[in-house]
Amino acid sequence: MTSSLIDSLYFGDTFGNPAMRHVFSDESRFRSWLDVEAAVARTQARLGLIPVGAAEEISRAAVIERLDLAAMKEEYERVGFPILPLVHQLAKACSPESARWVHWGATTQDIVDTGLVLQMRDGFGMIEPQIDEVIGAVARLARDHRDTVMAGRTFQQQAAPITFGFKAAVWLDELIRHRERLSEIKRRALVCQFGGAVGTLATLGQDGHAVLDALARELGLETPSISWHTARDGWAEAIFWLAMVGATLAKIATEIATLMRTEVDEVREPFAPGRGGSSTLPQKRNPIACPIIIAIGNRLRECVGTQLTAMIQEHERSVAGQPLEWLVIPDAFVLTSGALKQAFGILDRLTVDAERMRANLDSGGGFLMAEAVMMGLAPHTGRNQAHDIVYAAASRAMEAGDTLRSALRADPLVTAHLSASQIDALLEPANYTGSAGAMVDAVLAQVERR
């Protein structure tokens, strides 16, 4: 049994997915440690620091099937450090002649950090196609609804017309920037760690940096200029990136859930019989994926705070920094993957009700077109006077429960400059979406260039 929702048999595939959980499972963790130990041996053998035969035997023994996991766990609970039991198990799987070269020049943090980097690389490798899927789904929404007019809202109130394609393109532009940031972040986060006890590789003499460089190449990782045992900004940046992705998805989910309100009802999550049903209210079709995405976004922001705390470390090895990262990093990857999965499920089949959007535009008495009328009147009266004229007309209409159209047609300060047909044209929402279509096209062009 598990107490964590992301590992739960019942909830786990809602908040994450099996493949990403496997990336950060015990099995993958032990395998990554073994891969690092084997790579250390092979690298040192190529540089003539340990016998080639020993490196070959260590590499053959560095498989999870050779580990006595129960004995490892027992020793770990006694010793308190995770790598020494692994080293003992690996040495036990080798001949005495080869065993003496296991973990040569390394320290626990070298293996744990580099092992976790390998897991993070696999995690990013899974997230990349997921975010690309979401980008594709949002791009389709932007393209399909480039000219679907709806109310733009500020401070929870109708403000001026936009298109749903414009709204989706704002999401899309943000997601594209996240995707572009990732290549930079990986360069700084997926870095080999190999520094020995205090980071100087003193046990390897003048060969230390050569080993580090060769080890990084062996593992396909970036080579640091200096050990980063207490410099955790690269990982903090990685978690911050995951949290930014989560925040963007949570923003989208919040918008969709808000637009699903009965009084608005302009978009809906994909529906299947029974989906979103209430245990109490049989008529309801509640948002289901949106609350999960919002919750994950909130949790990821908390992960950032913890990872930033892990940056504050003393001397050349911190007392408490590493365990914080062990808690935060796997959860952040699993949760982000879960949010992307949920987001794609919504966005790929989102119901967009253009008729309802138009009805909501028309239900407001035309007041969201006040700015358009002001700008139509401004060439005749000046902008400030036009503002005052339209403000007064809108105020009279609101107090009388009338429409803006009626108030404008009855106002001689307006009709002195604008005919009834001109007023009607200025009150048509489709005529006042500005450069929305061109902006959508510009964002879609970014997708096509990728």
From TrEMBL:
Keyword Isomerase: yes
Keywords in alphabetical order: Isomerase
InterPro entries: AdenyloSucc_lyase_C, Fumarate_lyase_fam, Fumarate_lyase_N, L-Aspartase-like
UniProt xrefs under SUPFAM superfamilies: L-aspartase-like
Domain Adenylosuccinate lyase C-terminal as annotated: residue spans: 365-444
Keyword Ribonucleoprotein set for record: no
A Pfam entry, by short name: Lyase_1
GO molecular function terms attached to this record: isomerase activity
Family, per entry: Belongs to the class-II fumarase/aspartase family.
Descriptive protein name: 3-carboxy-cis,cis-muconate cycloisomerase
Organism expressing this protein natively: Thiocapsa rosea
